[in-house]
Structures are given as structure tokens and as C-alpha cells.
Amino acid sequence: MTYAVISDLHANLPALQEVLKDLESLGIDEVYCLGDVVGYGPDPTACVDLVRQRVHKTVKGNHDEALVHGGYGFHLRAREAIDWTRDELKPGFFSGLTVRQRWDFLTSLPLRFERGKDVFVHGSPRDPTSEYLLAEWLHSRREMFSEAFDATDRLLFTGHTHLPCAVTDTYEVVSSTEGYVFGARGEQRAIVNVGSVGQPRDKDPRACYVVVREEGADLRIEWRRVAYAIEETISRVVAQPRLDNRLGERLRHGA
Predict the structure, then answer these.
(1) Kindly report the CA angle at 157 between 146 and 86, in degrees rounded to 5?
(2) How far apart are CA 113 and CA 106, in angstroms?
(3) Which pLDDT score is estimated for 180?
(4) Fold of 2-252
């Protein structure tokens, strides 16, 4: 069984399109999304439509949640992007069925779902949309990670930080450049951060997602990096006056 997990698309259409092409080249049809379909980026409508068409299950991220509840606690650029996104997507009195269905999809996303022994969530089990599980906090905030491990019988898939890696319940951090074989270090459970399709922050500007391969007793995690037309996304950000240009410029550096 092979499937893919994507997250943090952030309305970056060229990045999402290239990731979906990469999935097609691998012959992978089963795709799960850990939220933040919108926010920051210039193409929320097209990205939502692609997710509805191609993704089997999607959970709610904090930017998706902010469409309804507001970007409280967001920095100014993020809040302004959410306000613009809401204006783009929210149905009006005369809106057609497609607009309403798109809005209903985004605003009714579940906070988590389970697949066998594994749990899928945007942030963390105790705060599904907003809590960060940063690997750098592994030892200083041990209780947070202990609770996260207790929430799954095997793997906990997360996004939100935009920083791909795995954290084992033996308190080791596995770099996304290594690949990861579950159980090879003696762990019983692990947290897998799948990285970000639309706004990577690990100094690699390429879109990032995870492929999961279950082959007999082996469970292998591969982080895929996919180049996309970054300048095209930047130009779309610049063309939208309600989006701060820096939301596009940061994409060049993966930061």
C-alpha cells in the first residue's frame, strides 16, 4: 500500500500542480491533506477545487479555520491575506452552487482523521489547528511530545511548522533528507512532519510532501522535493494589491 500526505498548500497553485504531477508519475492515487489549503497565496479558489477533486481526505488548518473565526494572533501580512481570501471565497446572496459548495467544504473540514493505527492532524492532537510540534522543542517541552505520542498507536502525521522531519518516541530527530524506516531505531510510535507544498521554510524552496510505502513489515517514509515555477507564484502575489509582496519573495529562499 502506497499513499501520499501533503500539507500547507497556502494557495500556491504552481506548487500544488507540480506535486500532483509528481504523484501521477509515481502512480499514487491515494492522497491526504493536513490543511492550510488557503492563506498567504494568490490562488485560493483553484487550489481548493484541486483538493476537492484529487484528495481523499483533508483536515482543517489554522488558516482554513481563520476564514470563519478571523486571523486572531496572526501577524499583519497573514491576517490581511486571510481577509482577502475570505472576500474571494465567501458566498454572497447571488452566488451559485459551486461557490457555496467550495465554501462549505473549507469551513466544515474535520480537525483530524485516522487511518488504521495512524492519526492525521494539522498541528497537534491537543490543539489540532494551532499548536506547533517543533523538533527543536523535543527536550525542552518533553510533556508536549509525550502527549502527542500517546495520541497514536503508530504514526502521527502533522504539518503546520513547514519543517519536514520525523521525531521518534525514543526522542531522536530524523532529517527529511535521510528518509525514514519506522521501527528501525526501536521506536513504537513517531511523529512525521510532512513539510509544506506551498511555503517551505527549511531553506529549500522546492515543494515538499511525503510518500508512505507499506511493504510487508516495513513502513517507509520518503520526503519528496519538487521544483515548481516560483517566479510565477511571486508574480501572482505581486499582481494582487491586497497581498504583501513579501509573501511571494520569501518563496525564493524557502524561509
Answers:
(1) 115
(2) 16
(3) 95
(4) Purple Acid Phosphatase; chain A, domain 2 (3.60.21)
Q: Residue 220, Cα to own-chain centre: how many angstroms?
A: 19
Using the CB atoms, write b or e for 27-49: b if 16+ within 10 Å.
ebeebbbbbbbbbbbbbbbebbb
pTM for this predicted structure:
0.97
What tens digit of pLDDT does each residue of 162-181 get?
999 999 999 999 999 988 99
- Nine cell digits for residue 231: 517566479
Q: What is the pLDDT of residue 216?
A: 77
CB of 49 closer than 8 Å to CB of 60:
no
Residue type, 83: D
Distances (CA, A) of 226 to 18, 36, 122, 245: 7, 19, 21, 23
Question: pLDDT by residue (tens digit) across 201-242?
Answer: 999 999 999 999 998 778 999 999 999 999 999 999 999 999
> 217: burial class by Cβ within 10 Å (0-12, 13-18, 19+)?
exposed
**Domain residue ranges in the chain:** 2-252
